[in-house]
Specification:
It comes from Lignipirellula cremea. One of its GO terms (molecular function) is serine-type endopeptidase activity. The chain is mainly beta and about 725 residues long. It folds into three domains: about 1-45, no CATH class; about 140-160 and about 225-425, Thrombin, subunit H, CATH 2.40.10; about 180-215 and about 430-525 and about 550-730, Lipovitellin-phosvitin complex, beta-sheet shell regions. Helix content is about 10%, strand content about 40%. The protein has helices at about 85-120, 210-215, 245, 310-315, 380-390, 405-415, 650-655, and strands at about 20, 30, 140, 150-155, 180-190, 195-205, 225-235, 240, 250-255, 260-270, 275-280, 300-305, 320-330, 335-340, 350, 360-370, 370-380, 415-425, 435-450, 455-470, 475-480, 505-525, 550-575, 580-590, 600-610, 615-630, 630-650, 695-700, 710-715, 720, 725, 730. An eleven-stranded antiparallel sheet has the order 21-20-19-6-5-27-26-25-24-23-22. The chain has a six-stranded antiparallel barrel with strand order 7-8-11-10-9-18. Strands 12-13-14-17-16-15 form a six-stranded antiparallel barrel. β25 (about 600-610) and β26 (about 615-630) form a beta hairpin. The protein is extended and about 130 Å long.
Length: about 725
């Protein structure tokens, strides 16, 4: 009789001669005992005795397994031990405790973060150390003007605080009086149907002249003068923020705050972002919180606090209201455009949001008869960056604070805003030693017709003047007249790119506001005045048309547009003797709303700078000028380059009388094409017959060019440029600054 599987109850199949059986349903197998007539499996057949772990006696009845019968050769099953519940209780208790600890940790972290954001933003987790000083623990302060209280790490005492002094950098200019540097220069612009080219040579030579004697009186930054600006408190122990241009060149600073006057020290200067830090000896001052400018949106309401036009309006705080009308961003730098009414003296004052937090610093204004009034602000994150770099803690704004009405906002902010009285003079704060450089230039203009490839000369231009420049390349004065096309600036400053302010900078930026003319030329009907009868049969005297016949004339109107020039520099590689600098340039006119810019000039350049001679060796620029007006758009590709031709060292140059200009550079123009006598004369109807403000017309200089010379116009800085080339009503070539 066949047995049954103890697991599933299925009848076993016929066993093997050795007694081995295997269930065909569940796969269970066993060897029948010798008592049933089966011999044990010999070892040479590979059957080993079943291990004890396979014993069926160990399976509890609760799992549906019956004890193996004794007839199968297994000992009786031992009863399963009872399970203890103590370990389960301990495990549950440990899990609950661990969860409670995690929850308490999360709550504690949240409270700490909330308290930290409401009190202050730590610039660094380490103790604050002012450059040149040591940490001295924490100072408590009382909240003032509605601001939250907290603690700030103290800095060195006011009496030990050093004033700002510019660093000597490795990348800097030097212009010895006995050295003359000559460069070859080329400019090309692909105008519609023609290629306009300027080729020539420029020369720079250092002099022994004193910069103060060269700068004109109306631009004299060296002569002592007085002015005022605005600042605001960012730390209770006497740290104020203002604009760099307010205090640059200052020989003394007075801070008037809450009817008290303090002597001030300029302890940090960031000319790249036009920011400065002034310190006074005071404690427990009400201070302003600094917002995150990345959260500021277009049309957000702001208020400007400052002390404008004190000589006329008096030394009382003025508050005006406006909105963020534009956000200008380039290469990580951001500037706010605002329509709030501000005036001279507002510079350095805060723009605050309805919560009373600083979102920007008033920087400059543009106003005039032919332009819309607008102002610009340094964004608050640039203020944060300057404070972080110097490891000075400040109060970071909490976004959840409620908005305040006008009187509440004024009460909260006014006690933290200060009037700055500035005296500037020679050797003032932030000024580097300046050198007077004598400059000369000789240029020839060419025009190439794209249809026939004819290249004709259009005149020769000479240029000369003095440049007052510091080692960083910042030009304080330039008397040279000629300017580059496409609003690229004076030719004399072609080789004077800005260098970094310190040795640790591998990237740096410059930006400035400019005014560009928008010249619109229209053709209007005109009638000639009556004249005496002609004696030449039907023609009036002097070749005039007969009286009464209609003719046409051109009229030009000028609108001055504000434009923001932004330049980004970076050192891409350096050796012990040479540095490669990349340059990104952009000049964009600023308009209200989302209007397409009238002018958008951009391009990239690579500069090779000799670190031994302290001068540039070469530069190559490629870019484009995009012009938009009344639905018409024109894009002009631009190429420009210069290369150092020679550097002459002559001891006689140093002894040359300082007021005698060095010889002009020698320039040999390439062979020119002489056009046939039948070549049509270029039209002159595109020359403006009316001039913009502060612009005077001047006839073209006499030139040996075979083609009729073009008309030239003197720019606002005296630069002479070819007459504008018009295309669909747009001025394409204009050298006005």
């Amino acid at each position: 009789m066949l047995g049954q599987c103890p697991l599933c109850g299925t009848t076993f199949p016929a066993p093997s001669p050795t007694g081995f059986v295997q269930c065909q349903v569940c796969g269970h197998s066993e060897t029948l005992p010798a008592s049933q007539g089966y011999a044990p499996s010999p070892a040479n057949q590979g059957y080993a005795p079943a291990p004890a772990s396979h014993s069926y006696a160990s399976s509890p009845a609760s799992q549906g397994f019956a004890p193996a019968p004794a007839s199968y050769g297994y000992p009786p099953a031992k009863p399963a031990p009872a399970r203890s519940k103590t370990g389960l209780v301990i495990g549950i208790a440990a899990a609950v405790g661990l969860g409670a600890m995690v929850l308490l940790g999360v709550l504690a972290y949240g409270v700490a973060v909330y308290a930290g954001r409401s009190d202050e933003r730590l610039a660094n987790s380490e103790p604050e150390v002012t450059p040149g000083g040591t940490s001295s623990g924490l100072i408590p302060f009382s909240p003032g003007g509605g601001n939250r209280g907290g603690t700030f790490a103290t800095t060195i005492p006011f009496s030990s605080q050093a004033e700002y002094s510019p660093a000597t950098t490795e990348l800097r200019y030097e212009w010895p009086a006995n050295t003359k540097h000559e460069y070859n220069f080329t400019y090309e612009a692909d105008l519609p149907n023609t290629v306009s080219t300027i080729e020539g040579a420029v020369t720079y030579q250092g002099t022994n002249l004193d910069a103060a004697t060269v700068i004109d009186a109306d631009e004299d930054a060296e002569q002592e003068s007085e002015g005022n600006g605005t600042g605001f408190v960012v730390r209770p122990d006497g740290y104020l923020v203002t604009c760099a241009h307010v205090v640059e060149g200052a020989v003394s600073v007075e801070v008037v705050l809450s009817d008290k006057t303090y002597p001030g020290k300029v302890i940090a200067l960031d000319t790249q972002h036009d920011l400065a830090i002034v310190r006074i000896e005071a404690n427990d001052l009400p201070y302003l919180q600094i917002a995150d400018s990345n959260t500021v949106r277009l049309a957000e309401e702001v208020r400007a606090f400052g002390y404008p036009m004190t000589s006329v309006l008096g030394e009382s705080l003025k508050i005006t209201r406006g909105t963020i009308s534009g956000i200008i961003e380039k290469d990580g730098d951001k500037t706010f455009q605002l329509d709030a009414s501000v005036n001279p003296g507002n510079s350095g004052g805060p723009f605050v949001n309805p919560q009373g937090h600083v979102v920007g610093v008033a920087r400059s204004i543009i106003a005039g008869e032919d332009i819309s009034a607008m102002s610009f602000a340094v964004v608050s994150n640039d203020v944060r960056q300057l404070l972080d770099q110097n490891r000075w803690q400040y109060a970071s704004a909490l976004d959840t604070e409620e908005k305040l009405d006008g009187p509440e906002l004024a009460e909260k902010v006014r006690t933290s805003v200060a009037l700055l009285r500035i005296k500037t003079g020679r050797g003032g704060i932030g000024t580097r030693e300046r050198t007077v450089v004598q400059y000369t230039g000789l240029f020839r203009l060419y025009s190439k017709n794209n249809s026939n490839g004819v290249r004709s000369s259009e005149g020769t231009i000479t240029d000369s003047g003095k440049i007052v420049v510091d080692a960083q390349g910042e030009v304080a004065y330039c008397s040279a007249a000629k300017t580059l096309p496409s609003h690229l600036g004076p030719i004399a400053q072609l080789c004077l790119d800005r260098m970094p302010a310190d040795n640790g900078s591998t990237e740096w930026n410059t930006n400035r506001l400019r005014l560009l003319p928008k010249i619109t030329t229209t053709v209007v009907p005109s009638y000639s005045a009556p004249s005496l009868p002609s004696l030449r049969f039907g023609r009036s005297r002097f070749g005039m048309r007969p009286p009464g016949l209609p003719s046409t004339r051109t009229e030009s109107s000028v609108e001055w547009l504000p434009a923001l020039e932004q330049v980004h520099y970076a050192t891409s590689s350096q050796t012990s003797s040479m540095a490669t600098i990349t340059k990104k340039f952009e000049l964009v006119t600023v308009h209200e709303g989302n209007e397409t810019p009238y002018v958008n000039i951009s391009g990239d350049a690579q500069i090779q700078f000799d670190k031994v001679k302290k001068i540039p060796v070469s530069m190559k620029f490629t870019g484009q000028a995009a012009l938009h007006s009344d639905g018409t758009a024109v894009t002009i590709p631009i190429r420009m380059s210069y290369t150092l031709k020679a550097s002459q060292v002559d001891s006689a140059l140093a002894s040359t009388p300082s007021r005698v200009a060095p010889p002009r550079p020698t320039y040999t123009p390439p062979p020119t094409y002489t056009p046939p006598a039948t070549q049509p004369t270029p039209p002159t109807s595109d020359v403006a017959t009316t001039t913009p403000p502060a612009v005077a017309s001047q006839p073209a200089p006499a030139t040996p060019a075979p083609a009729p010379a073009r008309t030239y116009r003197r720019s606002a800085t005296g630069g002479i440029s070819p007459a504008p080339v018009s295309h669909n009503g747009l001025t394409l070539l204009d050298l006005s600054p």
